[in-house]
Prior knowledge:
Layout: H1 10-38, H2 44-52, H3 55-71, H4 74-105, H5 115-133
Helix pairs in contact: 1-2, 1-3, 4-5
Amino acid sequence: MIEHVPDKLKPVAQRYAREMIIASLLYAAVVFGGAYATRMDVPHWVIIVAAIVPILPALMMLRAYITFVNGIDEFQRRIQSEAVMIAAGITGFGTFTYGFLEEWAGFPHLPLIWVLPILIGSWGIALCFIRFKYK
């Protein structure tokens, strides 16, 4: 990935990659640890803590992304902003619509845990389209 980055952006991209890898490994560790804890006979408060702890590495990922965006040029920042706005619109209006379908049309329940992955996935897809638009 970093081989295709312009030289002036390589330090920013390398820092982003390093921070995301660390946060991702930490996230995987706490999620697997929390999932394991739910199968053990532990007090309920331990399960609550285990359910909340994954937010910490997720916030580390957000921090890495914000640092990355602050380190890129205005044009790249515009591309990122457009993709995030499109993803927010797709996710927001999509989950809003699906909520009505659940309530009024009997569609199966979509757990809230899927909203952030939908946002991130739609951001990635939107980013591909936005980059293609500007080539």
